[in-house]
Amino acid sequence: MNRIELRRPMSVARRAFTLIELLLVLVIIGVLAAVVVPKLANRAGDAKIKACKASIGGISSALGVFEVDNSRYPSTEEGLAALVDCPPSLSGSWKGPYVDKVNIAADPWGHEFIYRYPGTNNPQGFDLFSMGPDGREGNDDITNWQQ
Fold it and tell me: Residue 30 is part of a domain; what is its CATH number?
């Protein structure tokens, strides 16, 4: 019987984790999180960039149809709103709406798309771009002339 009594306290003590074991598990979880979380975060950024490129492609196509119907692109002043609502300067040739208002409302980061006609980068056509994740014109812009 003494033998059983001696084993019990040892087995109870052995069931608990030591501080070293707990710290080791925390370090392993930390290393895994450091590797996995940035990869998952980057996926969301990549998805937004792809969605923005798709939106620019769709709006560009709608602008092409607008140009076929009206023999011109919307002016910079008319903007992308001319794809949804008939501009006052066009009477019977406008056959829109060419896109849903939702499609031109904003890029995936909540910024308005920038439209210019005639374009600075496309003098014979239009410039259409998003200012990208940072919301400022610069290096991370997503454009219709660099796709």
Answer: 3.30.700.10
pTM over 0.90: no
Task: Give the range of the structural domain holding residue 112, as residue numbers without chain letter.
Answer: 2-143
d(C-alpha 118, C-alpha 125), whole Å? 6
**How many separate domains does the chain show?**
1
End-to-end CA distance of the chain: 82
Q: State how far Cα 94 lies from the chain centre.
A: 32
pLDDT per position as a tens digit, 10-58: 555 567 778 888 888 888 888 888 877 777 777 778 889 999 999 999 9
CA distance 117 to 126: 5
Which alpha helices (DSSP H) does the chain contain, by range?
2-15, 19-70, 101-105
Sorted by sequence, the CB contacts under 8 Å of residue 57 that are 6+ apart come out as: 144, 147
Tokens 């709406």 belong to 97
